[in-house]
Amino acid sequence: RRVLPVVMAMVLAQRFSWLVLAAGIWIWGRERPGLVLILLILTLAWYSFFSGAVMPPWLELYARIIPSGQRGKMTGLRHSLVGIGGIVCLSLTPWLMSAVPFPLNYCVLFTASSIAFTLSTLVILRLREIFPQHPQPRPPLRQYIREILRVPGRDAPFRRYLLQQFLASFRMIANPALA
After folding, report:
1. Which of 73, 113, 167, 177 is the most buried (most CB within 10 A)?
2. Among residues 5, 39, 41, 10, which one has the least CA distance to residue 25?
3. What is the pLDDT of residue 159?
4. Which of 124, 6, 117 is nearest to 65 (CA)?
5. The pLDDT of residue 28 is above 80
6. Spatial separation of the C-alpha atoms in residues 22 and 29, rounded to whole Å
7. Among 58, 168, 173, which Cα is nearest to 66's?
């Protein structure tokens, strides 16, 4: 079964959130800052929901397109490139915030983010899924979920990984403050 269409639907919904926020800032930024704050919270929730929801099919796609012996290197490279991109964006943001008047500066910021996300989505469209030669039969959904929920209880390294990922997710607390 193909997962790319599922990934694309969730990714587009996720990326659309910043465009909605940019439009809200443009329309209500000066006159209705309270409404924009509510919109910010709603779009952050929207973005976060789809970020989490896309992970299982995204990882399935990742497993299909990258050979298992290269996944570690590719993941490291991906995180390095994202880090470099983050540094570049963080260096440009203070200039943008001071050069462009409020609220247009935030509108430009979220529009640029939406454009960059859209470009990355075009790259995702170029991915080609590789299907296993002998696919394993899929268990019923309830059985599958029960099996997944049992994994942390049986696998101590995986439990530590989940804890690390949970704690690392708190880095996102500062994101709204950076914008």
Report:
1. 113
2. 39
3. 82
4. 124
5. yes
6. 9
7. 58
Element (H, E) at 135: none
Going from the C-alpha of 11 to that of each of 34, 68, 127, 169, the distances in angstroms are 28, 24, 14, 19
Tell me if 20 sits within 8 A of 39, measured CB to CB.
yes
What is the biggest distance separating any 2 CA atoms in the chain, rounded to whole angstroms?
A: 60
Average pLDDT over residues 153-166: 81
Q: Which of 19, 82, 80 is nearest to 46 (CA)?
A: 19
- Closest to 144 measured CA to CA, from 56, 44, 26: 56
pLDDT over threshold 70, residue 178:
no
Q: How far apart (Å, rounded) are the C-alpha atoms in residues 160 and 152?
A: 9
Distance CA 161, CA 143 (A): 23
Rg (alpha carbons) of the chain, rounded to whole number: 19
Chain segment 119-156, per-residue pLDDT in tens: 888 888 787 777 767 767 777 878 878 887 888 888 88
Q: Which positions ≥6 away from 48 have C-beta within 8 Å?
A: 172
